[in-house]
Amino acid sequence: MFSFFKKKRSPQAASSTVTAPNTTITYDADLIETLIEDHQILLEHYQRVEKSARAQHFKEVRAELNQFKSLFHQHILLENVKLYVYLTRSLPADSEQCRLVSGMRREMRHIGKAVNQFIERYDVWPWNAGMEAQFIGDLEQIGSALVARIQTEEEALYPLYDIPRETA
Known about the structure:
By secondary structure, the protein is mainly alpha-helical. The chain has four helices and two strands, in the order ββαααα. It has a two-stranded antiparallel ribbon. A hairpin with a 6-residue loop joins strand 1 and strand 2. Helix 2 runs antiparallel to helix 3.
């Protein structure tokens, strides 16, 4: 999704003809790499927000938060459409793997809602002294949740997408 940040690669088969049952969503051989790159970009933006906040450059914080919000939403959309739909339609419905995917999708909705609430809370200007004082603590909570989620996705969820699922 953040392809504008990536080096241009030589053309290769980015997807196959394997589609998730009852969808037009095809397996994308580059999807996991793209999602992992997105994670790194999101973490870089988070660090910029934190650095600006610690320096008490709150106008910069607000601008960087808006950029983070846009990138976060693009990433979530890509995961929802290309990863979660593909996996939930491709895995056996009664499998442990399918339950894991469904549970992680539900959990991501809650995390996404918390991130959105955090950003909306601080998407006002000017900030008052209370907002400035509370921001770092709120940011650290969001950061901890995101880092834990990224680790779980990369270790437990993304490997499920590793092999194209043949449809019968």
